[in-house]
Design brief:
- With 169 residues, the chain is mainly α.
- The protein is 40% helix and 9% strand.
- The protein is built from six helices and four strands.
- It has helices spanning 11-18, 33-38, 46-63, 75-79, 106-120, 152-166; strands at residues 84-88, 95-99, 126-128, 137-139.
- A two-stranded antiparallel sheet has the order 1-2. Strands 3-4 form a two-stranded antiparallel sheet.
- A hairpin with an 8-residue loop joins strand 3 and strand 4.
- The relative contact order is 0.19.
C-alpha cells in the first residue's frame, strides 16, 4: 500500500510482518509458500506469527495515537518469551541483543529488532496507518513524527475527501 521506503534496521522485519495482511482485500501473504519463505516460517509457525503480527499492529496503532484494532495479546507478554543474548563483537567490542539459538524464531528476531530500535530511538516512529481499512505499517520520517497515513496519495487523500464531503461542500 505504501510508497514510503522501508523502515531502518531490524524494524524492516517488523514492518514486513505487519504488512503481510492486506486488511482491505483480506489477502494474507502468509497463506503462500513464498510469503512464509520471506520470513523463514513454516506452516506450523503460522498461528504464533499471526498472533505476533496483530499484537505488533496494535502497538503501532498506539504509536500513532489510536486504540487497538481488536483485542490482542499484549506485545510485551509475547516478547517476554523471546530468548535473547547479548552478543559482543570481538573486533570492536560493540554489543547488541541478538536472538538466541542457531535458527532463531520469528518472535526472537522481532524482539531483537524492537530492542535495537529502542536503543536507536526509532521504535516509536514505526506506526500503523490510521485508515480503518488499511492499518499498514510505515516508518514515519516526518520531521515532527506526526505522520498519519501510510500513503498520502491513497489513505490520506481518502480521509481528506471524506472530511470534505462530511462538511456538505
Amino acid at each position: 500500500m505504501s510508497e514510503r521506503s522501508p523502515a531502518p534496521g531490524g524494524l524492516a522485519l517488523v514492518q514486513a510482518l505487519v504488512n503481510t495482511l492486506d486488511l482491505e482485500s483480506g489477502a494474507d501473504s502468509l497463506d503462500t509458500p513464498e510469503g512464509r519463505a520471506r520470513l523463514a516460517l513454516t506452516e506450523d509457525d503460522l498461528p504464533a506469527a499471526r498472533e505476533l503480527r496483530e499484537s505488533l499492529r496494535a502497538a503501532l496503532l498506539a504509536h500513532a495515537g489510536h486504540p487497538p484494532h481488536r483485542a490482542v495479546t499484549p506485545l510485551g507478554e509475547l516478547l517476554a518469551a523471546a530468548p535473547l543474548v547479548v552478543a559482543v563483537d570481538p573486533a570492536d567490542g560493540s554489543a547488541a541483543l541478538a536472538p538466541a539459538g542457531s535458527r532463531p524464531s520469528l518472535l526472537c528476531r522481532v524482539a531483537a529488532a524492537v530492542a535495537e530500535a529502542l536503543a536507536a530511538g526509532t521504535w516509536m516512529r514505526l506506526k500503523a496507518c490510521e485508515a480503518a481499512d488499511c492499518h499498514w505499517a510505515y516508518y514515519d520520517r516526518s520531521p515532527a513524527g506526526r505522520g498519519r497515513w501510510c500513503s498520502m496519495q491513497v489513505c490520506g487523500a481518502r480521509a481528506k475527501m471524506r472530511r470534505y464531503r462530511a462538511k456538505g461542500a
